[in-house]
Amino acid sequence: MALVTIRLLVVDDDPLVRAGLALMLGGADDIAIVGEAADGSEVPALIAGVHPDVVLMDIRMPGVDGLTATERLRGRPGAPEVVVLTTFHADEQVLRAMRAGAAGFVLKDTPPADIVAAVRRVAAGDPVLSPAVTRQLMNRVAGAAPDDRTVRARARFGELAGREREVAVGVGRGQSNAEIAAALYLSVPTVKTQVSRILARLGFNNRVQIALLVHDAGFLDGDGTVR
Fold this sequence. Notes:
Blueprint: E1 6-11, H1 15-26, E2 31-37, H2 43-50, E3 54-58, H3 66-74, E4 81-86, H4 92-99, E5 105-107, H5 112-123, H6 131-142, H7 147-157, H8 162-172, H9 177-184, H10 188-202, H11 207-217
Parallel strand pairs: 1-2, 1-3, 3-4, 4-5
Helix pairs in contact: 3-4, 7-11, 8-9, 8-10, 8-11, 9-10
């Protein structure tokens, strides 16, 4: 069976960081570094030219920062997945990037093997963010969700049908499709279909955004149970 190669674009304003990431990730036999950029302004042209599957995006750059670049990128059809590179766990820009469609984040001091694993997971369609980290990020950066945000989130959540709501809460808990299927007595293909419907109905592009909506709406407490 032929090995599937993940096409990766590395975006960071520090040439030493880019070189280190390229050396680290280029050593994986299933990852190919297809381009590098020092600023978010370079990303659109590179995307069109090298067609990456995943973009490893520094959040802080002096020109067009990673947040702006992520928002612009994920708003385009057929956009590659984005993993945000950051120095801090709790960073308002990281949270905004995830709301814009980033598939998660990794810290710059993350062990090399874990960064490689994160790229592989995102390429496979799995977000790189645990429910515990989501809650930590939201609690430390945003505090309790403002009333207007809660109202807006609940209004969006109300656009979902009954079964879609149950599946969305499962996503918010960080459950896999198999775990959601077992909890709701559904087949895994049915859950996958429901997740796709949720994404389409809400105009989202990944599971992280569903999870954040569930948290914003206040349907999960600190232990991940439905209120």
